[in-house]
Amino acid sequence: MLDPYLGILILGLVGVLNAAAMMGVSHVLGSRRPTPVKASPYESGIPPLGSTRERFSVNFYIVAMLFIVLDIETLFLIPWAVIFRELGMVGFMEITAFLVVLGVGLVYAWKKGALEWD
After folding, report:
1. Contact (Cβ atoms closer than 8 angstroms) between residue 65 and residue 105
2. pTM of the prediction?
3. Bridge partners (DSSP) listed for residue 43
4. pLDDT for the residue numbered 43
């Protein structure tokens, strides 16, 4: 029962063990010399200005949600494209309906100004 997934399981286990081993070796062999400069936050080479509790515009969150929706669309399109010929016309119509719904949602968000940066 687990035979088809055994390779994936072993690969995942090797990846987790590799990451744990690298972190462990770094912790054991790494030097620790804390300084105030090392403890300060670092943002793209610029010292931070202002408070970290600054409010963000809701547009950041709306664009992030639209980005996630489009990522999920890609996740559904890739497997569909792999078995496109086996699905035939029914599969084509289903994915067309899926893309139309997402397209209508994107046009709606665009018309509402979700993609505008004022």
Report:
1. no
2. 0.51
3. 46
4. 66
Average pLDDT score over residue span 64-89:
88
Half-sphere exposure of residue 60: CA atoms within 13 angstroms, side-chain side:
3
Q: Note whether 77 and 95 are within 8 A (CB).
A: yes
Joined tokens for residue 29: 């062999």
In angstroms, what CA-CA distances link 67 with 3, 102, 106, 111?
Answer: 37, 12, 10, 17
Judged by DSSP in three states, 3 sits in helix
Structural contact between residues 92 and 81, judged by C-beta atoms closer than 8 angstroms: no
Tell me the range of 8-12, 17-21, 32-36, 81-85 where mean pLDDT is highest: 17-21
* 3-state SS, residue 43: strand
Residue 48 has pLDDT above 80, yes or no: no
User: Helices in the chain by DSSP H: which ranges?
Assistant: 6-29, 36-39, 58-82, 84-111
CA 73 to chain centre: 13
